[in-house]
Amino acid sequence: MDEPLRIIGNGTDVPDRDVPDGLTDKDLIELYRWLVLLRTFDERAVALQRQGRIGTYPLYWGEEGTQAGPLYACSDTDWVFPSYRQCAVATLRGAPPSVILGWCRGYGGPAGFYNPRTYRVAPICVPIATHLPHAVGLAWAAKIRGEDTVSLAWIGDGGTSEGDFHEALNFASVFKTATVFVCVNNQWAISTPVTRQMATATVAEKAAAYAMPAERVDGFDPLACYDAARRAVQRAREGGGPSLIEAFCYRLGPHGTADDPRLYRDDREAERWRPLEPVGRMASFLARLGVLDDATRDGIAGEAKDRVAAAVRELEAIEPPGPEVLFDHVYAGERPWSLEEGLRELRALRRREGD
To answer: I need a surface site. Which of 254, 318, 333, 345 has the fewest CB within 10 A?
Structure first.
């Protein structure tokens, strides 16, 4: 089993490696800014859920590098396909954080759903792995059109047990689509450990069945995630076909705010992994390079807090959509008769309740 690619050391016995090609000091700061924004959003969303102001929330504390790193390797014309644990990744492309919070609150329509074409970020996918064939389909369509668009999709280790995962990898390999699959192997599918999900020692080796290159990286290392994704994206854009990246890490917190991991695992195991979390690790690395000082670090933290705080204010000012929104955006064209009938019944019910 290959050791995962690691670039950021620990400042002592594990040395740092060179910064990946193509990243300037400005890029490093921007990537760190992305990490901090994701972390700030996640922490505030958990607090909002505990206050009853949003619904059940899929926290990703510690996995920010698996999101920011691969996204930074993409161009603005590439499409990305998040699962529920990458729910905030659209904010890195300019989507309002308040809209993501609206989604977490259960709003439909514009209050809880950004326009995917504006940001080239597909809808947040809650069903496990169903977005992977969509990512492959988009890349296939781009190939037919002669475009060099790459699609990048995230999946958890539990998702590799789904048929959609294997179907997507198989189709992508046969048709050589420009698709990069990023599997965040945090070693837990809710309460099921990875050793009970698959017989292979790694996720990466599954790619061999599809004649697809694969690479394992330290999922707590944003630069390793970026570097592997950069090479995979470049290969895909040049017509080399799909790749699989296994970002090996550990789920430091619960599966979601409705989960209590103490019921099925020892908290001490998570604590052993916690020092490797990516935000502090990246900050220490940049400090060793002389790129990040205390003032810049504090400024970035303040910017993220202000942006998320503004998003919460915007969320509270949103006029909640009515139940009619359930019937919108289901079909691209006209509603079928069954939905029209249901909408008429809903409106009639609301009129009676108003009398």
So the answer is: 333
Q: How many domains does the chain divide into? A: 2
Whether 255 is catalytic is yes
To the nearest 10°, report the CA torsion of 182, 186, 189, 191. Answer: -170
Q: What is the pLDDT of residues 297-336, one digit of tens each?
A: 999 999 999 999 999 999 999 988 888 888 887 888 888 9
Catalytic one among 6, 85, 216, 255?
A: 255
Respond yes or no: is residue 251 known to be catalytic.
yes
Phi and psi torsions of 215, nearest 5°: -145, 140
**Which residue is catalytic, options 264, 272, 331, 344?**
264
Q: What integer best gives the mean pLDDT of the chain?
A: 95
DSSP-based three-state secondary structure for 225: helix
Task: Identify the H or E element spanning 80.
Answer: strand 79-81
The answer to whether position 7 is within a domain reads no
- Tokens 């001490």 sit at which residue? 268
Could you list the residue range(s) of the whole structural domain that residue 181 is in? 25-321
Instruction: List pLDDT tens digits, range 84-123.
Output: 999 999 999 999 999 999 999 999 878 888 999 999 999 9
**CATH code, 116:** 3.40.50.970
Burial 176-207 (b: 16+ CB within 10 A, else e): bbbbbbbbbbbbbbeeeebeebbeeebbbbbb
131 is catalytic: no
5 falls within a domain? no
Give first-to-last CA distance, the chain, whole Å: 69
Residue 15 lies in a domain: no
- The reply to whether 245 and 307 lie within a common domain is yes
C-beta of residue 249 within 8 angstroms of C-beta of residue 219: yes
